Amino acid sequence: GQSRYLRACTAFDALSQAIEGYFSVCSNEESMQYSLQAIKIFKNNLISYITQEYDETVAQNTLLASNFAGKAINIAKTTASHALSYYITENYNLPHGHAVALSISKLLEFNSSNLHNKTLNDPRGYGYYNQKMQTLVDIITPDWLADALNAAGLKYSLSELGISNVEIICQNVSPSRLANNPLHLSIDDMCGLFYL
After folding, report:
1. Are the C-beta atoms of residues 175 and 79 closer than 8 Å to each other?
2. pTM of the model
3. How many Cβ atoms are within 10 Å of 188's Cβ, its own excluded?
4. pLDDT of residue 176
5. What pLDDT, on the 0 to 100 scale, is given for residue 37?
6. Pick from 79, 135, 69: nearest CA to 103
7. SS3 label, residue 55
8. In whole angstroms, how far apart are CA 105 and each of 58, 123, 143, 174, 192?
9. What is the pLDDT of residue 175?
10. How far apart (Å, rounded) are the C-alpha atoms in residues 26 and 62?
11. pLDDT digit string, tens, across residues 99-119
12. Which residues in the chain land under pLDDT 50?
């Protein structure tokens, strides 16, 4: 089968799509259902898929979750972790899924814990957004994501990956993808999404 590293990159890309798709400004009821289904399946299968011997059921579940994540992102579009990943992939030769994984746990933390001290980009309002994020962190937490990165063996500290200039990554982000993040991110906020 695929190498462990490749499995980790592709699985984290799809899981990140599901998470970003869920809290995206462009999400709707349909896309959020796809996202939540994907996240629940990934939570039970992702680590075994990456770290264990090939198992037909786990592989099928992962494929199904990836399919749901794709349907979610098709509607909702990606947000900050994807926006930040492109510069990293182009300039540091890091596969896309690994580049996305670098910031997803802290992005989840940022979007779920900064509710009232950041500008909300989502026109549906704070009450709606608060409830929506509560649903998400009841299913998956930033800590679970950080543990999953460790279990998968994906390095996520920038210095370990030989990336010393975090500011340049944050200055080269597509504004349209950032506008899709539910909370406004300053350059400093973006730099804070990485483990240095």
Report:
1. no
2. 0.96
3. 9
4. 84
5. 99
6. 79
7. coil
8. 23, 24, 7, 20, 11
9. 86
10. 25
11. 999 999 999 999 999 988 899
12. none
Q: What are the helix and strand counts (H, E) for the chain? A: 10, 0
Distance CA 35, CA 15 (A): 9
| Cα separation, 162 vs 133, whole angstroms | 33
Q: Which two tokens stand for residue 190?
A: 């973006």
Residue 96 has a pLDDT of 97
Return the SS3 of 3. coil
Write the DSSP symbol of residue 120.
B
Fold designation for 4-191: Dehydroquinate synthase-like, alpha domain (1.20.1090)
First CA to last CA distance, the chain: 32
Whole-angstrom distance, CA of residue 52 vs CA of residue 45: 10
How many Å apart are CA 111 and CA 88, to the nearest integer? 22
Question: What are the Cα distances from residue 143, in Å, to 30, 87, 92, 126, 140?
Answer: 27, 26, 26, 24, 8
